[in-house]
């Protein structure tokens, strides 16, 4: 099995202009992910976990290093150097991202959000509608809320909608940035069911979870990060 993602010497720092100070977030991060694997990244808050995922998704521009992704459309592409046009395509069709926070266009309903994600993948309206209903039901989002704006949702409802919207696309590579942080046990199990389903369908995942029990029977390997650097060894979970 070949690598779908290879990160080599990744580095990122942030400048606090008001303090004239530079903070190193991650230094010399290297890892590989084979197709179909689920890789977990663990570490304390502020250790640099989310920075790695945001560099892959290009929410952050990297400071150094390479992020090689084996794309269906572009072949091997260095995400650290990819154009904005290439990144827009990859985010729409190949790479998904789930975080704790829901950022959506105003006046877009929950149903429309999920449906748009499916249509972006090239599916017909009828199929998109069926899959939307299935996903909203799976995550137990109250049917009365489907045609409402997410701004009115509770934190847990927003999070479940965010997860539904990303996972319904069945991306080749899915980045999970502590998506279950504020969910109850029942909702966490719903997320786990979808993760297992996606893994069976071949989706590759890179995830951050504070709940190590949640990760235990999902991850192929774990990378532990402390103060912006990986520990020398990785372990299988």
UniProtKB/TrEMBL annotation:
Chain coiled-coil ranges: none
This protein's UniProt keywords: ATP-binding, Cell membrane, Membrane, Nucleotide-binding, Transport
Localization: Cell membrane
GO cellular component: plasma membrane
A GO molecular-function annotation: ATP hydrolysis activity
Family, similarity comment: Belongs to the ABC transporter superfamily.
Protein name: ABC transporter-like protein
Native species: Neobacillus massiliamazoniensis
């Amino acid at each position: 099995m070949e690598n779908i993602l290879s990160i080599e010497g990744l580095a990122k720092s942030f400048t606090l202009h008001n303090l004239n100070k530079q903070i190193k977030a991650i230094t010399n991060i290297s890892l590989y992910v084979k197709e179909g694997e689920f890789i977990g990244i663990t570490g304390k808050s502020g250790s640099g976990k989310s920075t790695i995922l945001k560099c892959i998704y290009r929410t952050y521009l990297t400071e150094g290093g390479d992020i090689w992704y084996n794309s269906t459309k572009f072949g091997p592409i260095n995400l650290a150097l990819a154009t904005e046009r290439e990144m827009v395509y990859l985010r729409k069709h190949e790479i998904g991202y789930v975080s704790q926070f829901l950022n959506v266009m105003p006046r877009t309903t929950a149903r429309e959000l999920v449906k748009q994600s499916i249509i972006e993948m090239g599916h017909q309206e009828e199929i998109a509608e069926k899959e939307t209903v299935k996903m909203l039901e799976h995550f137990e989002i109250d049917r009365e809320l489907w045609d409402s704006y997410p701004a009115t949702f509770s934190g847990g409802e927003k999070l479940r909608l965010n997860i539904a919207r990303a996972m319904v696309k069945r991306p080749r590579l899915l980045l999970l940035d502590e998506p279950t942080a504020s969910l109850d046990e029942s909702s966490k199990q719903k997320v786990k069911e979808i993760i297992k389903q996606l893994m069976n369908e071949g989706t590759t995942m890179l995830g951050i979870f504070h709940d190590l029990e949640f990760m235990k029977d999902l991850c192929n390997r774990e990378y532990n990060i402390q103060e912006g650097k990986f520990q020398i060894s990785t372990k299988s979970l």
